[in-house]
Specification:
Length: 283
């Protein structure tokens, strides 16, 4: 009986801490802000830099939609890196590198060596927080176009926004990290390493399976559908806290689940879930 009470106390404390974390994140996300109509737009040889503007938050203010600015860049890249912060982005395959963004958005994009990099604004510039849960007003979405084909590395780091990567791209190594936002990857083929890490957000993946797969989830959700692979080809290490893992229809859940399957297999799969959920489908 004492052991049961101790377990219940531990579970209760974990839920209390998780609740406080969710409340704090929701409180911060409830800030609304708008950008004062001042600032300059400068066009550089390797991209566009939209200068930082003054950001103020007022409860209930809804800013007007900003005009879109589109710019095509000349260059080549083997790697793609997108540090998006709190903006939303659609990445699609095309014939050249291009970025379309609202005028006045603080964003930079350029070639650094053999990497095409897009960097969004900081998650928080200056804000007067108000109670309530609401999204940041105005248009904070951009469209990134890259030439179709295979890249060495694709890295995506997302804060509170949403990201959609459409079909037509492939890479050797894929690394995705989502904080509170949602990342959807459609028809993306990965050859060597596929590493998806989610905090409180959601990651969806559909594409060709890689030789090494690593899925790590905190309090959010990862849903992955890999084609062209079988469970028996992978040495699979599962670790589950208070969440759950569903691997090709087989469910693993409960406190402190640690399982190693198909030991010695040539390919590796790691599924690590805290309080969220990981779903893996093999086609």
């Amino acid at each position: 009986m004492k052991k049961f009470c101790k377990i219940c106390t531990i579970v209760g404390l974990c839920l209390l801490v998780a609740g406080a974390a969710v409340f704090g994140a929701g409180f911060a996300a409830g800030a609304r802000r708008f950008t004062l109509p001042t600032g300059l737009l400068t066009v550089n040889q390797d991209g566009v830099s939209l200068l930082r503007k003054t950001v103020v938050t007022l409860p209930g203010y809804q800013p007007e939609e900003a005009a879109l600015v589109s710019h095509v860049l000349q260059g080549e890249a083997k790697n793609l890196r997108f540090d998006l912060g709190n903006i939303s982005a659609t990445v699609k395959a095309g014939t050249a590198f291009a970025v379309e963004a609202p005028e006045g958005m603080e964003i930079t994009y350029r070639f650094e060596g053999d990497t095409f990099q897009v960097t969004g604004p900081d998650a928080v510039d200056f804000a007067i927080f108000n109670f309530g849960f609401s999204s940041i007003g105005g248009n904070n979405s951009i469209v990134i176009t890259v030439p179709a084909g295979e890249y060495e590395n694709i890295d995506i780091d997302l804060g509170t926004g949403d990201a959609l990567v459409e079909a037509g791209l492939s890479c050797k190594n894929l690394h995705v990290e989502a904080g509170m936002g949602t990342v959807r990857l459609k028809g993306l083929d990965v050859a060597d390493v596929c590493a998806l890490k989610g905090g409180m957000g959601r990651i969806e993946f559909a594409g060709q399976g890689a030789c090494e797969i690593s899925l790590e989830c905190g309090m959010g959700e990862i849903v992955a559908a890999f084609s062209g692979i079988q469970a028996g080809d992978y040495e699979t290490a599962l670790s589950c806290g208070m969440g759950s893992i569903v691997l090709d229809g087989q469910r693993f859940s409960g406190m402190g689940v640690d399982t190693l399957m198909n030991k010695g297999a040539a390919k590796k799969m790691t599924l690590d879930c805290g309080m969220g959920q990981i779903k893996v489908e093999l086609r």
